[in-house]
Write a structure and sequence with these properties.
Elements: E1 6-9, H1 19-34, E2 38-41, H2 55-66, H3 92-101, E3 105-108, H4 112-124, H5 147-155, E4 161-164, E5 171-176, E6 180-185, E7 193-195, H6 203-213, E8 218-222, H7 229-239, E9 245-249, E10 252-253, H8 263-269, H9 291-299, H10 314-320, E11 331-332, H11 335-348, H12 351-364, H13 371-381, H14 391-395, H15 407-413, H16 418-430, H17 437-450, H18 455-467, H19 475-482, H20 484-497
Parallel strand pairs: 1-2, 8-9, 10-11
Antiparallel strand pairs: 3-4, 4-7, 5-6
Helix pairs in contact: 1-10, 9-11, 12-13, 16-20, 17-19
The chain binds glutamic acid.
Glutamic acid is lined by residues 10-12, 44, 203, 207, 221, 225.
Length: 498
Amino acid sequence: MSQKVRVRFAPSPTGPLHIGGLRTALFNYLYAKKNGGDFILRIEDTDQNRFVEGAEEYIIEALNWCGIPFDEGPGKEGAYGPYRQSERKDLYKSYALELIEKGKAYYAFDSAETLNHHRKDHEAKGKTFIYNWHNRLKLTNSLSLSEEEVKAKLDAGEDYVIRFKSPENEEIHLNDIIRGPIKIDSSTLDDKVLFKSDGMPTYHLANIVDDHLMKITHVIRGEEWLPSLALHAQLYDAFGWQSPEFAHLPLIMKPVGKGKLSKRDGEKGGFPVFPLTWNESEGYREAGFFPEAVINFLALLGWNPGTEQEIFSLEELVSSFTLERVNKSGARFDPEKNNWYNQQWLQKKSNAELATLFDTDLKNRNITATKEYVTHVVSLIKDRAIFAKDFWDLGSYFFEAPSSYNEKAVKKQWKEETPEIMSKVASLLDTIDSFESSIIEEKVKGWISEQELSFGKVMPPLRLVIVGDMKGPHLFDIMELIGKKETISRINTAIAQL
Ligand code: GLU
């Protein structure tokens, strides 16, 4: 029987989740659900200096808002907890020591000053200082010192780190599901620190140990971790553990130009880069995006279904998703396209659901209307809306008479004879008993032909006085909704004002 798929999202709680992190979580979720597996949240908080209060709660709330909750994680203990590395810190040291025992790692006693000195010295010569096979015997560590010297230092309580002993001259063969086979020359690798002098593991050690203990089968993470893959693969070998499979997701690129999407890009371009608001940075949720739209556009950032289909529900994503269809190259972030996705998802919502959203906005404006009325309005204007918050701009005239008229339109549509024509239209409307769109239309159009007037003399100014602008859905639908009295009153107001 094949192993149950287990994947994890392993953020460090150093701030809000960036949209790229959310995409990593989503791809993990999709892969897990597609394969009947588990999606685990592990909080990588071994670096206490970078810990940010509230970040973990933020991450969890963002996943829940998107509808991609984890199966195991903080607060949802499974068989492999705890799921915060800070609560697991006692277990890492023995693994570092095990590697020393096996000759795969070593103690290093070099002080920060010494290492800094080497770095500066190299820099001055235009070189980069790398701690590895080519110089480790000249530095202060358990490879260069005698056993007694090492023991004396340890007994004296001197500070040390534990470094991985990277091999000198080996070709390391790696595999990435998205990128295929990768070859690395081990002599270019440095002897990474696995365990720090403060008694905490580094990311590399804790990550590998936890992935192993949590029985992770697939590591799906951002491309920025690809350079760590050689070390991670060697660590699995060194421990004699079976390595999970790896998939490194392409970067999310700026809307224009080169480089990785940053918070600054969002500020400059006026679009969110966080799922939820964090301090002054507005999130997708607060900006009025539907979680379905966010999930949908994120999925298509770097993954393609191999068809023309663009709109996917979460269920459809789960059934279509494969890691093989994730692109190697960076995915350009397109805020316009994100809006388009929201617009598409808005159209899919029921009028009743949208009316509820609009109603909250109306209440804030001290406007009351029946649910039926608001629902009807929404049905007429929603095809132009990107967000529910657009409804007011698109349809305020359904709730109150225009307070001003579009100047350009007035110049163009309001002629000398217009007041007289409008006044006649008002009288005509007054005679209509059942004030329904199709009946009003028939009457008004019949009257226009009878009078041998052109439509252009009547319809545009009529729209202007009712809407205040040249926009909006079918004019007779608007009239029906606002009613006879209001329609006539708007005509009269305009005649008096214009
Ligand atoms: N803690 C790392 C991060 O913040 C996890 C990287 C990984 O998934 O291995 O992204």
